[in-house]
Design goal:
Elements (H helix, E strand, L loop, with lengths): L4 H15 L12 E6 L14 H16 L3 E3 L9 H10 L3 H19 L14 H15 L1 E4 L4 E4 H11 L16 H6 L2 H9 L4 E11 L4 E3 L4 E2 L2 E2 L7 E10 L5 H6 L8 H11 L2 E9 L11 E6 L10 E4 L6 H4 L5 H13 L2 H6 L6 E8 L6 E6 L11 E4 L5 H9 L1 H7 L46 H14 L3 E6 L5 E2 L12 E3 L5 E3 L32 E3 L4 E3 L9 E3 L7 H4 L3 H4 L12 H7 L4 E4 L7 H15 L11 E3 L3 E11 L4 E3 L9 E6 L4 E2 L2 E2 L1 H7 L7 E3 L8 E5 L11 H8 L1 H10 L7 E2 L5 H13 L2 E2 L2 E2 L8 H19 L3 H18 L4 H11 L4 H10 L22 E4 L12 E4 L4 H10 L1 H7 L6 E5 L3 E5 L1
Parallel strand pairs: 1-2, 1-23, 12-14, 23-24, 25-32, 26-30
Antiparallel strand pairs: 3-4, 5-6, 5-9, 7-8, 9-17, 10-11, 10-16, 12-15, 13-14, 18-19, 20-21, 20-22, 25-26, 25-27, 25-31, 28-29, 33-34, 35-36, 37-38
Helix pairs in contact: 1-28, 3-4, 22-23, 23-24, 24-26, 25-26, 25-27, 27-28
The structure holds one RNA strand.
Length: about 950
RNA sequence: GCCCGGGUGGUGGAAUAGGUAGACACGCAGGACUUAAAAUCCUGUGGGCAGUAAUGUCCGUGCGGGUUCAAUUCCCGCCCCGGGUACCA
């Protein structure tokens, strides 16, 4: 009987589907394990061979856990909202729902062919109203919540209102947009509209005027992580800064918890580091600098700066404001106004991109001065775009000696600054021995100098202190003398949550007669996405939903009605924006736990059983997007009591990318002749990408090549050894490089089991590596060899004879190796171990059930189809997925290992072979009692014997 | 610039609480079977030197130092490659 993979795979895939083999239910008392893949966006191009890498790994792990007795939740779904479907819809008029459904069907067919053990009964699609209902629900909850720094969690806004009623903002510690201050009486005096505006400053989902990344080409705003180098991640269109009123999520409120939570989860160090950088915690101080009396603001004004280096306060020689800073208008003197206005205009003209490409030092003097907080000397206030409005207070104290950016600025404007400082040099070093003639000294180390002496007016003496001590002392001084406060800043910004798009979740929001946003009642959810005639933004600049006729809210009848009926008493306009891509992916892992629940996102029982994801596999590209937002989202739900775990993903693995291995042919210039790789240096050639599907083991199929394109029909070839050898390079897998390998083709030719094993064999899971079809034969050969172990002369020939010692040794070494390797996610070495084991068994001619049956079980996570078939041929009813993983018994694998007694001075070296299983003491005495060792050790008394079983013996004399 | 990874045969990669470097596979070479091819199987395969040979011997994990009886593994200094991030005060 031959290994007929096509037949076997078809048969077992149908069997699994029919018997719902991988359907799971919560089962109290049975240990659970939740294995999750990052669900795919179903693009029009279908899957290439790189996509399933992580799915194969998670599937192997799931099947392994199942065999070990765990109740494994391993679901799959689709991140179905997204820009490509909408762009396609704009171009073709095809409804995104239609193309998305077609793409999903195609993905499903491709996934099924690989033989994954997903529980498809739990499938989730983000564009399904039954699903996005809970996305809208969470949004309403966020709108109705604020973040208390007192309790370090989200609380209902009703509690905030109660606090305002009794004590105003007195003693309030809550996350907010800007610090407000009013009394209980002040709150009482506010109009309803003012109260709503005030609350908006605290809500976790809020409408705010924010500087957004506006992409005109896409007609929408983008989140920070959707912008790369000043252009949009998708499409690469230019992005500009613009103030717009947008829905935002107060992710920044959770900055500290998002940061500290990283300490308790098992994620790759590099990914945690990326998130730490993104959150960007910096501890420092805000310092208030009073305006100099002569300045335009008159007496009483002040400017607040943020610094992480308060110790350098005596090196401050000027101040800089961001161009967009709110301080600017008040501080510009009439004389400087024209110069400042010209500067602001020039800054506005420069796009983000230009600012990055050309980092010129620019700036303008505001005309005003502030007073140094300690020495009371006047300091000039400048305006420059190297200070960012969005970070800290948008104003800095410049210390040119110890900050490279301030240094560059001081050098650029040295003449002006010197004049303003009465001839003094603006660069004042504060650390002993540092040289600031060429560059600033930014390091936080050394001893302080140049601070005032003991007994000076201000009383802050830093001389002689280490930088760290000086920072602490200055912070304490600032607080004690009311010059400012200790402050922690985060780089993490709130997430902008509005998109001017059609293909996304609608907001459950309408605007009342006052124009204030109101949430729809929860019973009205889901608010379904309406039909529109076209998917472009409306001519008025409104988002595409502005084209929907049926898009107003009747607040009395509680239903969606036609826009035409808006009467401003009971029927109101609905929000026209939709939610961004990350909305739907922020809680999908919770929905899988209880996907058909109509009462809740997830029931308490289901959530308490499945809890959180035990293993999450996906790419690093989501480090600062999805993986931050979903942690935030989950923490919020945790605060409201909707879920029982604070962190959603306990362990995370980043699978590497599979790159393409492009093939090249070399055309001799001005001809239609192509020269083989090793002969190309003799000619002037142009390399051309050639479709990798026409190349095998780097040899070009010249007939296929001629048939590929009309212009190659008459191509000539200069061959070497009768073959045309192609050149190759590792590039991103993409259509334009003709290096896309479709998993369907591989499955067709070699079978799914070979594809699964080969993808694992290619190298470590975390590593990026090029796809190289060349090596796949080796894996396929292994499977055929393995199949043949069961057959002799065309029939099944498995004997019931007891297994011998040598066979059991091979088997148990395999069990041990494969089990520990899977537990460490080292799938490539597991596959190698199988190959070795099967080679050895073939060598022994072993066809014994006692060996082959357990071997089939441990191999089944990797090659489920062939193992199922053999399992059934061995006489088992049911699926191998219900089998039990064999137990490793060490006694079968006892073997001799080396022990190395140790010589000294490099004079004596010897090696000794000892049986395994001896105790440390036994090894030590065996070594020391050995003739050679005894001779060497004669006259020296061992002080200490260090033994590592099976490995080393160290003797210290 | 800063922060993470990583440099091992012709190729993908094994082996790190320091202990026989190159498992496994590809490729290549030779052989068996075959009229032939494919498929399959067997053998060899880091480099140099010596030997008819079994074998012996030296050199070898990016480069230069160090620690150690012993370093791919630990320490110091470089070089190169990949990823993240970037006026965040």
């Amino acid at each position: 009987m031959e290994y007929n993979f096509a037949e076997i795979e078809k048969k077992w895939q149908a069997w699994w589907a029919e018997h719902q083999t991988f359907r799971v239910r919560a089962a109290a008392g049975r240990p659970k394990f939740y294995v999750l893949d990052m669900f795919p966006y179903p693009s029009g191009a279908g899957l290439h061979v790189g996509h399933p890498l992580g799915y194969i790994a998670s599937d192997i792990y799931s099947r392994f856990r199942r065999l070990r007795g765990f109740n494994v939740l391993h679901p799959m779904g689709y991140d179905a909202y997204g820009l490509p479907a909408e762009q396609y819809a704009i171009q073709t008029g095809q409804h995104p729902e239609v193309t998305t459904a077609a793409n999903i069907a195609r993905y499903r067919r491709q996934l099924d062919k690989i033989g994954f053990s997903f529980d498809w009964s739990r499938e989730v699609k983000t564009c399904d109203p039954a699903y996005y209902r809970w996305t809208q629900w969470a949004f309403i909850r966020m709108f109705n919540s604020f973040y208390s720094y007192e309790q370090n969690r989200a609380l209902p806004v009703s509690e905030l209102v109660r606090a305002f009623e009794t004590s105003g903002t007195e003693g309030l510690r809550a996350a907010c947009g800007k610090e407000l201050s009013f009394s209980a009486a002040g709150w009482q005096a506010m109009s309803e509209k003012d109260r709503q505006e005030t609350l908006m400053n605290y809500r976790l989902a809020y409408l705010g005027d924010t500087m957004v990344n506006w992409c005109a080409a896409l007609g929408t705003v983008l989140a920070n992580d959707e912008v790369v180098n000043g252009v949009s991640l998708r499409g690469g269109y230019p992005v500009e800064q613009k103030v717009m009123r947008q829905w935002c999520l107060r992710v920044s409120a959770y900055a500290e918890r998002l940061l500290s939570g990283l300490d308790v989860i098992d994620w790759p160090a590099s990914l945690k580091e990326t998130q730490r950088n993104w959150i960007g915690k910096s501890e420092g101080a805000e310092i208030r600098l009073p305006l100099a009396p002569s300045s335009s603001g008159g007496g009483g004004g002040e400017v607040v700066v943020f610094t992480t280096r308060p110790d350098t306060v005596f090196g401050v020689t000027f101040m800089v404001l961001a161009p967009e800073s709110a301080y600017v208008p008040a501080l510009v003197t009439p004389g400087q106004r024209p110069a400042v206005e010209a500067y602001l205009a020039s800054v506005k003209r420069r796009t983000e991109r230009e600012r990055m490409a050309d980092r010129k030092v620019t700036g303008v003097f505001s005309g005003s001065h502030v007073l140094h907080p300690l020495t009371r000397e006047p300091l000039p206030v400048w305006i420059s775009d190297y200070v960012l409005a969005g970070y800290g207070t948008g104003a800095i104290m410049a210390v040119p000696a110890h900050d490279s950016r301030d240094y560059a600025f001081a050098k650029q404007f040295e003449t002006e600054l010197r004049a303003q400082l009465g001839g003094k040099c603006p660069i004042v070093p504060l650390i002993e021995g540092c040289d600031v003639s060429e560059e600033s000294f930014d390091a936080k180390e050394g001893k302080m100098i140049n601070s005032p002496q003991e007994g000076c007016v201000c009383g802050l003496v830093l001389n002689g202190l280490e930088v760290k001590e000086a920072i602490a002392k200055t912070k304490a001084y600032i607080e004690a003398n009311n010059l400012g406060r200790v402050q922690v800043n985060y780089r993490l910004r709130d997430a902008i949550f509005s998109r001017q798009r059609y293909w996304g979740e609608p907001f459950p929001v309408y605007y009342d007669a006052e124009g204030m946003p109101q949430m729809l009642p929860e019973e009205a959810l889901p608010l379904e996405l309406p039909e529109v005639d076209r998917f472009l933004p409306a001519g008025t600049g409104e988002p595409p939903l502005g084209r929907a006729g049926r898009w107003a809210w009747d607040s009395v009848r509680k239903e969606v009605v036609a826009t035409a009926r808006i009467d401003n008493k009971t029927v109101f306009p609905l929000e026209l924006n939709t939610m961004p891509g990350f909305a739907g992916s922020s809680a999908y892992f919770l929905r899988y736990m209880d996907p058909h629940n109509e009462k809740a996102l997830v029931s308490r029982e289901a959530n308490e059983y499945w809890r959180s994801v035990d293993l999450y596999i996906g790419g690093t590209e989501h480090a600062t997007g999805h993986l931050i937002y979903s942690r935030f989202w989950n923490k919020f739900l945790f605060d409201t009591g909707a879920v029982c775990e604070d962190e959603p993903f306990r362990k995370l693995i980043n699978q590497g990318m599979i790159q393409g291995r492009s093939s090249f042919v070399y055309r001799i210039q001005n001809s239609n002749t192509f020269v083989s790789l090793n002969l190309k240096d003799r000619y002037e050639v142009t390399p051309l990408h050639v479709d990798v599907n026409m190349v095998e083991n780097d040899v070009l199929d010249t007939d296929k090549f001629r048939a590929w394109r009309p212009e190659f029909a008459g191509a000539g070839f200069i061959l070497e050894d009768g073959k045309y050898i192609c050149g190759w390079a590792v590039e991103k897998m993409s259509k334009s490089m003709y290096n896309v390998v479709n998993p369907d083709d591989i499955v067709e030719k070699y079978g799914a089991d070979t594809l699964r094993m080969y993808e694992m064999f290619l190298g470590p899971l975390e590593q990026s590596k090029p796809w190289d079809t060349n090596g796949i034969d080796g894996v396929h050969r292994f499977l055929r060899k393995y199949w043949r172990l069961f057959f002799e002369g065309g029939r099944l020939a498995v004997s019931d004879a007891p297994a011998g010692a040598a066979e059991l040794k091979i088997l148990h070494r395999l069990i041990n190796k494969v089990q520990t390797d899977i537990e460490h996610f080292s799938f490539n070495t597991s596959v190698s171990a199988f190959m070795t084991g099967v080679n050895e068994l073939t060598g022994l001619g072993c066809r014994k059930r006692a060996v082959l049956e357990p071997l089939t079980v441990i191999l089944s996570p990797f090659c489920p189809h062939v193992c199922e078939e053999l399992w059934s041929l061995l006489g088992h009813a049911g699926s191998i997925a219900d089998a039990t993983y064999p137990v490793y018994e060490e006694r079968y694998t006892v073997e001799e290992r080396f022990a190395y007694p140790v010589s000294f001075n490099g004079k004596v070296r010897f090696r000794k072979t000892l049986p395994l299983g001896l105790s440390r003491e036994e090894i030590a005495s065996a070594v020391l009692g050995d003739g050679q060792s005894a001779k060497y050790l004669e006259g020296r008394k061992p002080e200490k014997v260090i033994v590592v079983p099976g490995k080393i013996v160290n003797v210290v004399v």
